[in-house]
Amino acid sequence: MSARRFSGKAAIVTGGSSGIGAEACRRLVAEGASVLLTGRSRERGEQLVDELGSAACFLAVDQTEPDSGERIVQRAIAVCGGVDVLVNCAALDHTGDLLDTPLHEVRELFDVNVFAALTALQAAGRAMRATGGGAIVNVTSRLASIGVPTMALYSASKGALLALTRAAAVELAPHGIRVNAVAPGMTRTPLFDAWLAAQDDPAATARATTSAIPQGRLATPAEVAAAIAYLASDEAAHVTGASLAIDGGYTAT
């Protein structure tokens, strides 16, 4: 870790109040960035800001609102001095039978996982274009590339975000804007812990889950955050349109 890799830079992390997003905020602040983190939970967001100190600030926002992307970017410009990095981490989980999932659930899923990320990307991209460039990192999933029963619609939303990442990388390259993705596998987040606790036999489910991963364990949020920081940094200056799997080899099997 370089304490100066993001010195003087301003970053936005959506969904930054918990899990992978919170770890991304910690990593970016530790490396010198000023960070605006967003989320729906004011309590969690303000707790993280208290932890991170004056380099971080929080904006409570519902990203399904049409103007949310522009509101986030304008707040970042006002309090952080600009937008050099956008990390699209806000997401909604979903499991359910493909043939029986009602359309309103699908719309809600895409509103958060695709359209919210898109509006943030558009607003941040316009700001970056005006200042000569920047880096955007979209957090997708292993499920953007593979099929798992009951996860088809979540997979579709993350697959759409992956396709957007690749196309945006090509379109925005002339403006000095890089767009990449990280694709985490199963990661030890509060969301995973809650899912595991709800299983009939959590211990057996945990064993089955880790046995399918070549490295034999889950990812940690800090490991995903490290990949985000790399892609957002100048060390990845010639990397755009890439998707970096953080899954212990799961999608390589």
Q: CATH architecture, please? A: 3-Layer(aba) Sandwich
Strand order of the largest sheet: 3-2-1-4-5-6-7
Tell the overall outline: globular
The name of the CATH superfamily reads NAD(P)-binding Rossmann-like Domain
CATH topology: Rossmann fold
Q: Can you put this structure into words, describing what you see?
A:
The protein has 253 residues and is of the alpha/beta class. It has a single domain (10-188, 221-252), classed as NAD(P)-binding Rossmann-like Domain (Rossmann fold), CATH 3.40.50. It contains 8 helices and 7 strands. The protein has a 7-stranded parallel sheet with strand order 3-2-1-4-5-6-7, sandwiched between helices. Strand 2 (34-39), helix 2 (42-52) and strand 3 (56-60) form a beta-alpha-beta unit. Helix 3 (68-80) runs parallel beside helix 4 (103-131) and helix 4 packs parallel to helix 5. The radius of gyration is 17 Å and the shape is globular. The model has no long low-confidence stretch (mean pLDDT 96).
